[in-house]
């Protein structure tokens, strides 16, 4: 028996170690199999993958994250200029906002606010300084949009669009010198208002399928015959289109007569067209869930433009899709996550305050466990939103284009924003559903599906993009193997594939052993860059990472190209990657904040939830895996002792809420994007002032409760009667009675809603 084992081991060593034997019996058959199961890539998919960069998500995908790399990215900070702009211009803009008036009366921003935004450079945040712009960081851009969104989604969207995917960004990155000189200074000053037309009736999330077309031809422009394009388009959902003076347009460029060369279909191209150009039609407005930001349609039929109106000039013909993908990080990684994070900050600020001042059954509603369950989710999700906002903008400010990360941010942050608003509406109930100047929840709640829908519908972002791109882009071998399979020289392709295959097999083996050992040992022997209460989270995240890497390899091996069509499975594996990214952001925020002890309840709740959801996604993938033998193997390697990653406990929830139902630094750190200022017209100041005043009286209220229990004061009487009785019996002093009366007046103002004579 021993001889047989030794001979078998020798045979295995020879099989793998002797190249000629390995090539004949392993590499060639595997290479042939790989080419058969290789998932086909469309041109747009290939361009999308080549356009994006691999950043921190690559570490998470490969089974052994280097946590020191995460910590080395640094803490996002504002420059003195950015801070001054936020402290002055942004705060001034907030005082000019009356969102109820904007949405229900004007259906537009007031002229003075439009003028202020233009004059003070709100539309120039990303434009380089040499063209009159601000050249602010992604973190500053996000902070500005978030603070505006805490009071008005309509105002925030109006500012965010010129600083997101559109003419300003595309010109900055790709424009010719002449185009930059012509347009950027005017855009920076607000003399020109941009919009960008990508979406149409037949092309939404599948933006690469746009039917709008530009035909290369000769025609006359300004009295001169020249080579140009005849454009025909029909676009909708275009933000700022109704007021735009310059239109960015994406279209399919074709050259049927070969005027530019042999290629007939050049591909997606982007051009810049003044909206007063003959033939350009700016259509009627849309009504995006009642919000007042400008959104509408544009059309054109055989509109002739010169070739040099192509962004980047004629040499950028057909390069529009790559340009768009590279610039999508602004919308997906900055603007929409900023709106979601603003919802979290505002909801946490107002709902913790409201839960303290709103009383039912003789006690603050924040003391009811049912309310605490929802309130804990609001607080934890807001901590998560702020963490993800900071990490994602950090990546963008490092000048990488992390397309997978920004897809994760867009999907999960807008969904977390939706969850936060749902819970806030449930807790504040009648206060939230009665629209009026005092209602701060209604408009964000109503507008939330807009963020869910734009920049790629969330369902498709989750099921197609996150794992679909991540599995190929982030994997250390698969993309290179795909490139080897596409090589024309078969001998060179086989040599290249052989080297990659050996590395891939070693990589897969390491991940399998790592996943199993971590599961059996409870990740106790894993490494972590920190000590203390967050140490175990790093170890558990590494375990989940190795499990994801193992599952990805086996999924690609078993399903090959069919994995693209197994959207439910790929979405779940994308969820694992997403939860790892969100957990990373949470741990980094805790470190960036200086490991504040009063942040720990939020960190514990968030991390328990992230690990629970990641493990659940792994388990659900195994349960639905098409090959049952492989599913059994995966379960044995990943969960040999079962899945013990539980959702946050009730104690975690009550501990988290208990620390937030009082003013303090921990609450300030996740509500600062919803600032206080004089002249706040939206009801937020009202509920916050009531909360602070009520909390300042907490010891006086304890005296009243004690006296009621002792029978010295009546139990169920109106507050003002109770205060008077307490003063009369000497339970409280005159000064204390004045404080109680003041706090109660503020409380009543905060819980009251608007009513109207007629609607």
Automatic annotation (TrEMBL):
Leading EC class: oxidoreductase
Location of the Acyl-CoA dehydrogenase/oxidase N-terminal domain: 85-191
Occurrences of domain Acyl-CoA dehydrogenase C-terminal bacterial-type (ranges): 472-756
Alphabetical keyword list: FAD, Flavoprotein, Oxidoreductase
Reactions catalysed according to its record: a long-chain 2,3-saturated fatty acyl-CoA + oxidized [electron-transfer flavoprotein] + H(+) = a long-chain (2E)-enoyl-CoA + reduced [electron-transfer flavoprotein]; a medium-chain 2,3-saturated fatty acyl-CoA + oxidized [electron-transfer flavoprotein] + H(+) = a medium-chain (2E)-enoyl-CoA + reduced [electron-transfer flavoprotein]
Domain Acyl-CoA oxidase/dehydrogenase middle: 195-295
Domain of life: Bacteria
Cofactor(s) listed: FAD
Record-annotated Acyl-CoA dehydrogenase/oxidase C-terminal domain positions: 318-451
PANTHER family: ACYL-COENZYME A DEHYDROGENASE, MEDIUM-CHAIN SPECIFIC ACYL-COA DEHYDROGENASE, MITOCHONDRIAL-RELATED
The protein, known as: Acyl-coenzyme A dehydrogenase
Source organism per UniProt: Shewanella vaxholmensis
